[in-house]
Amino acid sequence: MKRVLILMGLFVFTLSEMLFAYDKELAKRFNMMFSQMTPEVIAKKPCMVNAKQLLEMIKNKEPFVILDVRSPEEMAIVGITWKDRFDIPMHEVFKEENLNKLPKDKKIVVICHTGPRSIAVTLALRALGFMNAYAFDGGVAELAKEVGRAAYMFVH
After folding, report:
1. Which stretches make up the Rhodanese domain (predicted)?
2. Alpha carbons 6 and 36: distance in angstroms, whole number
3. Mean pLDDT throughout 53-66?
4. Longest Cα pair distance anywhere in the chain, in angstroms?
């Protein structure tokens, strides 16, 4: 009977460790990122680039790359032809060979269709140390709406 109780105790202890365990190092990294996100900082939309800012970056010839995380099907319908871009679907971004393609020396503007995927990818990239990653606010839909027929003013 003692053995059964000891085994049950070990089982419960092991199970509780598994249930309440978490990656402490990753938690520290998230804490470093999110502890700075006060309401005042969040109001300024850190880690985000909007259409007007992107157009200014183009106009000023600021070095940056676009990381398009939409699916190949989405890209086939509406494609971004910016010269410095990577078309890597969200589910493939974090493969080692794709992470190795991303620059460390210029901004990475992450874009999707409307924004949520770019925010998720940007947060994860920043957690990995890509502090040069920025989510594009509103996605391709917002960019098309903002640029409209005036695109020629920014790319020539």
Report:
1. 60-152
2. 46
3. 94
4. 83
Domains located in the chain, CATH noted:
39-155 (3.40.250.10)
Amino acid 10 reads L
Say if residue 15's pLDDT is above 60: no
Q: Let me know if 135 is exposed, middle or buried by CB neighbors in 10 A (0-12, 13-18, 19+).
A: buried
Structure token digits, residue 91: 């589910």
* 91-132: pLDDT as tens digits: 999 999 999 999 999 999 999 999 999 999 998 999 899 999
pTM score of the predicted model: 0.75
Residue-level length of the chain: 156
Taking each helix axis from N to C end, the angle separating 139-147 and 51-59, rounded to the nearest 10 degrees, works out to 60
**Dihedral sign for Cα atoms in the order 135, 138, 144, 150:** negative
Tokens of 46: 């850190």
Using CA atoms, how far residue 106 sits from 44, 52, 128, in Å, is 21, 19, 16
Contact (CB, 8 A) for 106 and 132? yes
Band of pLDDT at residue 49, cut at 50, 70 and 90: very high
**AA letter at 145:** K
